[in-house]
C-alpha cells in the first residue's frame, strides 16, 4: 500500500497520464484488430461466394480468370431449380403465416395470462431455439409415418412452423413486454372488448415486431435444411436442391444461386431495419 | 359482426388454446412417438413394436457410437470456445469503447446479418475455399507459399470447427452484447473512482455482470453445433462424422429407425440437460451477485 | 343504498398478503373523493377495483344501485385517467378522445363534435390532429382527462393524476381539475399520496393505512381532528409528545408534559392514563416577553431557527429534551434579528382546542 503510494508520488503526473493513455491506445488498437478479424471472417467468404459466381472458369481457383454471366443464364434455364424456388416460396409463405397465427397468441398468453403449467408451456415453446432441427425433423417424421401421413411440402410446412415458432414468440413477447399495461386497460376502460382492444390498440403497437418476426421466419424457412431433409416427399425446396447438387461437387452455378440469395436477404434485412427504425423515431 | 362477437367471447380460450393445441400435436406427440420408436425392434426389412432397451444398449456398448458422441461434444465445445474468444472482445468494444452509436449499430447489424443469409451457402463457401482445388490452395500457390495443392485444409475437424464457428458466431455475439449493454456505465466509473485499473474493473465488475450473456451464448452455439449435420457432410470428411450424421443415416441408407430414434432421444436429453444447466447457472449467478 | 358507488366488505388478497382488509365505503353522487395514503396502503387497488381492473377476493361493488362486481371494465359506466395517461401512441389526439365514443357506437360526425368540445373544456382546442408524442406532459394529462370525460361517465377515476407533472404545473392543475369537477357535476374519485393535493382538491378524504380506512372526513375535519397519530402524521406536520392525564372533566383534560401542565379541549379522549398528544407547529406561538399569561404555557429554550421563506420554524427544547417546532409567519418588516436568540428561555402559548389527544401506540 505504502509502496504504491510512494510510486504514485515519485512518478511525475504527466508521465503517469501518458502511460495510462498509451495503455488505453494499445487496448484500443487491439480491439480494432479484433473487429477487423471478425468482420473479415464474416464477410470475406461471402465476398468470395459472390466473386466466383461471375468467374468464367468452371473450377473455383484463385485468381479469378474473367467475367461472365454464364452461370446466371444457366440458372434461368434450369427448370428443376425454378420449380424448387417456387416450392420454397410456397413453404416459406405458408409456414410464416402459420407461425404468426400460432406464435402471436402464444406470446400474448405468456404476456397476459397466469395459468397452471405456464413454465412448461414457455419451456416447450422456446425449446426449438436451442434444439437442433434434426430432432424436430426426426420426431415429426416418426409421427407422420406412425399415423400414416404421406410426406409432402405440407408436412414440411408444419415442421417449419413448429421449429420457427420460438422465433416469433420471443420477438413478439419482447415487444409486448415493452408496451405499457395501461394501454390495454385504457382501451377496455373506454368500452372496448378484448377483441377490439387487440385489433385497435395491441396490434398497431406490435405491428413492426410482427413484420420483423415474419420476415425473419420467412427467410429462415426459405433456407431451412435439417427439418426439410426428413419431412419432404418427392418435392425439393431450393436449399434441398442446392444440397443435392453439392453432393456432386462444387460448381459456379451454386455460387450464382448463392449470390442471388445473399442479395435477396440483404434487401429483406434492410426492409426490417427501416421499419424498426421508423418505429423507434415514432415513439420516445 | 357475428364472428367478432364470437371472437370477443372466446378470445381468452383461443389465445391459449391454439398454441397449446399446437404444442401437443406437433411437439409432445412427436416426442412421444420418437420415444416409442426408440424401444422398437428392427426386423429386416421392417420395424416391429416392442419394449426393449436393445437400441440404447447398442449405443452404449458399441464403441463407434461413443467415439462419435465424444467427438461431437469436443467439436461443439471447441466451436463455442472459439466463438466466445472472438465474440466477447468484439461485443465489449462495441458497447464500452465505441462512442459513435451509428457505427455501433452498423457493426452489430453486420454480425447479425449473416443469420439471414443461407446457412447452407455459408457452409458451402468454406468447402470452396478450403478444398484441394480450392481458393485457399490456389491463392497460396499463386503467391508462391506452396508448390502443390495441400489436402490439409479440408475434410478434418479443424475445417469443421472453423465452418461451425463461422455459422454460429452471431448466436454468441447477440446475448453477450445485450448483457454488456445492460450494465450501467456508472458501475465501471464507480469502480475506476475506487481506484481499480481498467483490467481489474473488467475482471471484478464487467465480466461477472455479463456472465448471463456468456452462458446463454455458449448454450446456443453448443447445442446448435452439437446437432449440426450439414457442415460435417460438406467439410467434415471420413473422421468428421458427428452424431447427427449417424442419426440421419439410420433414417437413410442404414434404415434402422429404432436406433436412429434412440439416438435422437439421447440428443434431446443432452440438449435439455444443457439448457437446464444453463438456467441453473444463470439463477445461481443472480443470487451470488 | 344511497351512494353512486357502494363498496361492501371488500377484501383483496395477493397470495398470503392482504391488500385490502374489509373495506366499506359509500361515495355520494357528485362529490370529489380522495383516497390518500402512502404507497402500498391499498388505495390504488381500491380504485382499480372500482374501474374493474382488479377483482375483489370478497365483497361487492355497486354502481348506482347495480352490482358491478363481476363486470369487466368495458361494461362499467366509469372512466379512468391513468397515472401514465396511457394515450394510444399510434392515434392522433382526436382519435384518442373519440376512441371511447367509437366503442359506444357514436357516429363519426357526432364523435368529432364531442371530442372537440372535450378538448375545449381542457383548454387544448387546436391540438386535435397532433400525435401524443408531440405533446408536453401537461398537455398529455389534459388529453387523458378529455378522453375519460368525453364518454360522460357517472364516475371519473383519477389514479395519481398529477404525479408526473412538475411542482408549478401541479398546483395549477389542482385548481383546474377542481373547476372541471364543478362544471361537470359528476363524481370524481382520486388516488394520491400527496396530502396537500388531497386537502386542496377534495370534498372528502379517505386516509388509508395498510388496507383499511384510517379516517374518513372532510379535509378540515382530518386536519383539525385527526383520530390517530398515523393520520396526524400523514396530514400536515405535528409535534408529538408523551403525556399523562392528571384529571378529566368532560372534554376538558388536564395533562402533564415533561413536568409542566397543560389543558386540552379535544373531542376524543383516550381511556388510558398515559397518552400521546399532538400540536401543529403553526397552532402554537411564542409569547411576548411582556405577556403574563400563566395558563396553557410550555417553557423551553430556543435551539434553532430555520428560515422557510414565508415562515420561520423555531425549534424549542423542552425541559426533558423534547423538541417542539413552531411555525410563525414572518410579519411585515420583521427581520430575523428580532426573534429570540439561541438559548433564550421562551414561553409557548397553546390554545386548549389545539391539543390533539391520541392513544399511545405500543
Automatic annotation (TrEMBL), chain A:
<feature type="transmembrane region" description="Helical">
    <location>
        <begin position="254"/>
        <end position="277"/>
    </location>
</feature>
<dbReference type="GO" id="GO:0055085">
    <property type="term" value="P:transmembrane transport"/>
</dbReference>
<dbReference type="GO" id="GO:0005886">
    <property type="term" value="C:plasma membrane"/>
</dbReference>
<dbReference type="InterPro" id="IPR035906">
    <property type="entry name" value="MetI-like_sf"/>
</dbReference>
<feature type="domain" description="ABC transmembrane type-1">
    <location>
        <begin position="85"/>
        <end position="272"/>
    </location>
</feature>
<protein>
    <submittedName>
        <fullName>Inner membrane ABC transporter permease protein YdcV</fullName>
    </submittedName>
</protein>
<keyword id="KW-0813">Transport</keyword>
<feature type="transmembrane region" description="Helical">
    <location>
        <begin position="124"/>
        <end position="144"/>
    </location>
</feature>
<feature type="transmembrane region" description="Helical">
    <location>
        <begin position="156"/>
        <end position="174"/>
    </location>
</feature>
<feature type="transmembrane region" description="Helical">
    <location>
        <begin position="209"/>
        <end position="231"/>
    </location>
</feature>
<dbReference type="InterPro" id="IPR051789">
    <property type="entry name" value="Bact_Polyamine_Transport"/>
</dbReference>
<feature type="transmembrane region" description="Helical">
    <location>
        <begin position="81"/>
        <end position="104"/>
    </location>
</feature>
<keyword id="KW-1003">Cell membrane</keyword>
<keyword id="KW-0472">Membrane</keyword>
<comment type="similarity">
    <text>Belongs to the binding-protein-dependent transport system permease family. CysTW subfamily.</text>
</comment>
TrEMBL record, chain B:
<keyword id="KW-0813">Transport</keyword>
<feature type="domain" description="ABC transmembrane type-1">
    <location>
        <begin position="69"/>
        <end position="278"/>
    </location>
</feature>
<keyword id="KW-1003">Cell membrane</keyword>
<keyword id="KW-0812">Transmembrane</keyword>
<dbReference type="GO" id="GO:0005886">
    <property type="term" value="C:plasma membrane"/>
</dbReference>
<feature type="transmembrane region" description="Helical">
    <location>
        <begin position="101"/>
        <end position="121"/>
    </location>
</feature>
<feature type="transmembrane region" description="Helical">
    <location>
        <begin position="255"/>
        <end position="277"/>
    </location>
</feature>
<keyword id="KW-0472">Membrane</keyword>
<protein>
    <submittedName>
        <fullName>Putrescine transport system permease protein PotH</fullName>
    </submittedName>
</protein>
<dbReference type="InterPro" id="IPR000515">
    <property type="entry name" value="MetI-like"/>
</dbReference>
<dbReference type="InterPro" id="IPR035906">
    <property type="entry name" value="MetI-like_sf"/>
</dbReference>
<feature type="transmembrane region" description="Helical">
    <location>
        <begin position="158"/>
        <end position="180"/>
    </location>
</feature>
<feature type="transmembrane region" description="Helical">
    <location>
        <begin position="20"/>
        <end position="40"/>
    </location>
</feature>
<feature type="transmembrane region" description="Helical">
    <location>
        <begin position="214"/>
        <end position="235"/>
    </location>
</feature>
<dbReference type="GO" id="GO:0055085">
    <property type="term" value="P:transmembrane transport"/>
</dbReference>
TrEMBL record, chain C:
<feature type="domain" description="ABC transporter">
    <location>
        <begin position="5"/>
        <end position="235"/>
    </location>
</feature>
<comment type="function">
    <text>Part of the ABC transporter complex PotABCD involved in spermidine/putrescine import. Responsible for energy coupling to the transport system.</text>
</comment>
<keyword id="KW-0813">Transport</keyword>
<dbReference type="InterPro" id="IPR050093">
    <property type="entry name" value="ABC_SmlMolc_Importer"/>
</dbReference>
<keyword id="KW-0472">Membrane</keyword>
<dbReference type="GO" id="GO:0043190">
    <property type="term" value="C:ATP-binding cassette (ABC) transporter complex"/>
</dbReference>
<protein>
    <recommendedName>
        <fullName>Spermidine/putrescine import ATP-binding protein PotA</fullName>
        <ecNumber>7.6.2.11</ecNumber>
    </recommendedName>
</protein>
<dbReference type="GO" id="GO:0015417">
    <property type="term" value="F:ABC-type polyamine transporter activity"/>
</dbReference>
<dbReference type="InterPro" id="IPR008995">
    <property type="entry name" value="Mo/tungstate-bd_C_term_dom"/>
</dbReference>
<dbReference type="InterPro" id="IPR027417">
    <property type="entry name" value="P-loop_NTPase"/>
</dbReference>
<dbReference type="GO" id="GO:0016887">
    <property type="term" value="F:ATP hydrolysis activity"/>
</dbReference>
<keyword id="KW-1278">Translocase</keyword>
<keyword id="KW-1003">Cell membrane</keyword>
<keyword id="KW-0067">ATP-binding</keyword>
<dbReference type="Pfam" id="PF00005">
    <property type="entry name" value="ABC_tran"/>
</dbReference>
Amino acid at each position: 500500500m505504502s509502496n504504491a503510494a510512494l510510486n504514485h508520488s515519485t512518478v511525475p503526473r504527466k508521465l503517469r497520464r501518458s502511460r495510462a493513455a498509451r495503455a488505453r491506445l494499445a487496448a484500443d488498437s487491439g480491439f480494432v484488430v479484433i473487429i477487423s478479424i471478425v468482420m473479415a471472417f464474416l464477410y470475406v467468404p461471402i465476398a468470395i461466394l459472390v466473386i466466383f459466381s461471375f468467374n468464367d472458369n468452371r473450377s473455383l481457383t484463385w485468381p479469378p480468370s474473367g467475367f461472365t454471366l454464364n452461370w446466371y443464364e444457366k440458372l434461368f434455364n434450369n427448370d428443376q431449380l425454378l420449380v424448387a424456388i417456387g416450392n420454397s416460396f410456397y413453404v416459406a409463405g405458408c409456414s410464416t403465416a402459420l407461425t404468426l397465427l400460432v406464435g402471436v397468441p402464444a406470446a400474448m398468453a405468456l404476456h397476459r395470462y397466469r395459468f397452471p403449467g405456464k413454465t412448461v408451456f414457455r419451456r416447450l415453446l422456446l425449446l426449438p431455439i436451442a434444439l437442433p432441427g434434426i430432432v424436430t425433423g426426426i420426431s415429426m417424421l416418426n409421427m407422420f409415418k406412425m399415423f400414416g401421413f404421406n410426406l409432402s411440402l405440407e408436412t414440411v410446412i408444419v415442421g417449419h412452423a413448429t421449429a420457427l415458432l420460438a422465433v416469433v414468440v420471443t420477438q413478439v413477447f419482447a415487444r409486448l413486454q415493452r408496451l405499457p399495461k395501461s394501454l390495454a386497460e385504457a382501451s377496455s376502460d373506454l368500452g372496448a372488448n378484448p377483441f377490439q382492444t387487440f385489433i385497435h390498440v395491441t396490434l398497431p403497437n406490435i405491428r413492426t415486431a410482427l413484420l420483423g418476426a415474419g420476415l425473419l421466419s420467412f427467410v429462415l424457412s426459405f433456407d431451412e435444411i435439417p427439418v426439410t431433409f426428413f419431412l419432404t416427399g418427392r418435392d425439393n425446396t431450393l436449399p434441398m436442391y442446392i444440397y443435392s447438387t453439392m453432393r456432386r461437387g462444387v460448381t459456379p452455378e451454386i455460387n450464382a444461386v448463392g449470390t442471388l440469395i445473399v442479395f435477396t436477404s440483404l434487401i429483406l434485412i434492410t426492409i426490417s431495419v427501416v421499419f424498426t427504425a421508423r418505429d423507434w423515431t415514432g415513439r420516445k | 359482426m357475428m364472428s367478432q362477437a364470437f371472437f370477443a367471447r372466446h378470445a381468452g380460450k383461443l389465445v391459449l388454446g391454439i398454441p397449446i393445441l399446437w404444442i401437443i400435436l406437433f411437439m409432445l406427440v412427436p416426442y412421444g412417438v420418437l420415444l416409442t420408436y426408440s424401444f422398437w425392434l428392427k426386423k429386416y426389412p421392417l420395424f416391429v413394436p416392442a419394449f426393449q432397451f436393445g437400441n440404447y444398449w447398442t449405443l452404449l456398448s458399441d464403441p463407434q457410437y461413443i467415439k462419435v458422441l465424444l467427438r461431437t461434444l469436443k467439436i461443439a465445445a471447441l466451436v463455442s470456445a472459439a466463438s466466445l474468444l472472438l465474440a466477447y472482445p468484439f461485443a465489449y468494444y462495441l458497447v464500452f469503447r465505441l462512442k459513435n452509436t451509428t457505427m455501433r449499430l452498423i457493426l452489430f447489424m453486420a454480425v447479425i446479418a449473416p443469420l439471414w443469409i443461407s446457412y447452407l451457402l455459408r457452409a458451402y463457401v468454406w468447402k470452396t475455399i478450403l478444398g484441394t482445388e480450392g481458393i485457399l490452395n490456389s491463392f497460396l500457390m499463386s503467391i508462391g507459399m506452396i508448390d502443390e495443392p495441400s489436402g490439409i485444409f479440408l475434410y478434418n475437424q479443424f475445417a469443421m470447427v472453423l465452418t461451425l464457428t463461422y455459422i454460429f458466431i452471431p448466436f454468441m455475439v447477440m446475448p453477450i452484447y445485450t448483457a454488456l449493454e445492460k450494465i450501467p456505465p456508472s458501475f465501471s466509473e464507480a469502480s475506476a473512482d475506487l481506484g481499480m485499473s481498467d483490467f481489474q474493473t473488467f475482471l471484478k465488475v464487467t465480466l461477472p455482470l455479463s456472465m448471463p450473456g456468456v452462458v446463454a451464448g455458449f448454450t446456443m452455439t453448443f447445442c446448435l453445433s452439437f446437432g449440426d449435420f450439414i457442415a460435417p457432410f460438406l467439410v467434415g470428411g471420413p473422421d468428421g462424422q458427428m452424431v447427427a450424421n449417424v442419426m440421419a443415416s439410420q433414417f437413410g441408407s442404414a434404415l434402422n429407425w429404432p436406433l436412429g430414434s434412440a439416438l435422437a432421444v439421447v440428443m434431446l436429453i443432452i440438449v435439455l440437460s444443457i439448457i437446464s444447466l444453463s438456467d441453473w447457472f444463470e439463477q445461481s449467478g443472480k443470487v451470488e451477485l | 343504498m344511497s351512494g353512486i358507488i357502494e363498496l361492501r366488505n371488500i377484501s383483496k388478497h395477493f397470495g398470503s398478503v392482504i391488500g385490502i382488509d374489509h373495506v366499506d365505503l359509500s361515495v355520494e353522487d357528485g362529490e370529489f373523493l380522495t383516497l390518500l395514503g402512502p404507497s402500498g396502503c391499498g388505495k390504488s387497488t381500491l380504485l382499480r377495483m372500482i374501474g374493474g381492473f382488479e377483482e375483489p377476493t370478497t365483497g361487492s361493488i355497486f354502481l348506482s344501485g347495480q352490482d358491478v362486481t363481476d363486470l369487466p371494465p368495458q361494461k362499467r359506466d366509469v372512466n379512468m385517467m391513468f397515472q401514465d395517461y396511457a394515450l394510444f401512441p399510434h392515434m392522433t389526439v382526436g382519435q384518442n378522445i373519440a376512441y371511447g365514443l367509437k366503442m359506444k357506437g357514436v357516429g363519426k360526425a357526432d364523435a368529432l363534435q364531442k371530442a372537440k368540445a372535450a378538448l375545449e373544456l381542457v383548454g387544448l382546442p387546436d391540438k386535435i390532429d397532433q400525435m401524443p408524442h408531440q405533446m408536453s406532459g401537461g398537455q398529455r394529462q389534459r388529453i387523458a382527462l378529455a378522453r375519460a370525460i368525453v364518454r360522460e361517465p357517472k364516475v371519473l377515476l383519477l389514479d395519481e393524476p398529477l404525479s408526473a407533472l412538475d411542482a408549478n404545473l401541479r398546483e395549477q392543475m389542482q385548481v383546474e381539475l377542481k373547476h372541471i369537477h364543478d362544471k361537470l357535476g359528476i363524481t370524481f374519485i382520486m388516488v394520491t399520496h400527496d396530502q396537500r393535493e388531497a386537502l386542496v382538491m377534495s370534498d372528502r378524504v379517505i386516509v388509508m393505512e395498510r388496507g383499511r380506512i384510517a379516517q374518513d372526513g372532510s379535509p378540515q375535519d382530518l386536519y383539525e381532528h385527526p383520530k390517530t397519530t398515523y393520520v396526524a402524521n400523514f396530514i400536515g406536520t405535528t409535534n408529538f409528545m408523551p403525556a399523562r392525564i392528571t384529571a378529566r372533566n368532560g372534554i376538558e383534560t388536564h395533562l402533564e408534559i415533561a413536568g409542566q401542565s397543560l389543558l386540552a379541549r379535544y373531542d376524543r379522549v383516550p381511556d388510558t392514563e398515559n397518552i400521546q398528544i399532538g400540536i401543529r407547529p403553526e397552532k402554537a406561538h411564542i409569547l411576548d416577553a411582556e405577556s403574563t399569561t400563566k395558563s396553557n404555557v410550555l417553557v423551553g429554550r430556543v435551539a434553532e431557527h430555520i428560515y422557510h421563506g414565508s415562515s420561520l420554524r423555531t425549534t424549542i427544547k423542552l425541559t426533558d429534551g423534547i423538541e417542539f417546532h413552531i411555525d410563525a409567519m414572518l410579519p411585515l418588516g420583521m427581520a430575523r434579528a428580532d426573534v429570540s436568540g439561541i438559548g433564550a428561555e421562551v414561553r409557548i402559548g397553546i390554545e386548549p382546542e389545539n391539543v390533539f389527544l391520541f392513544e399511545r401506540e405500543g
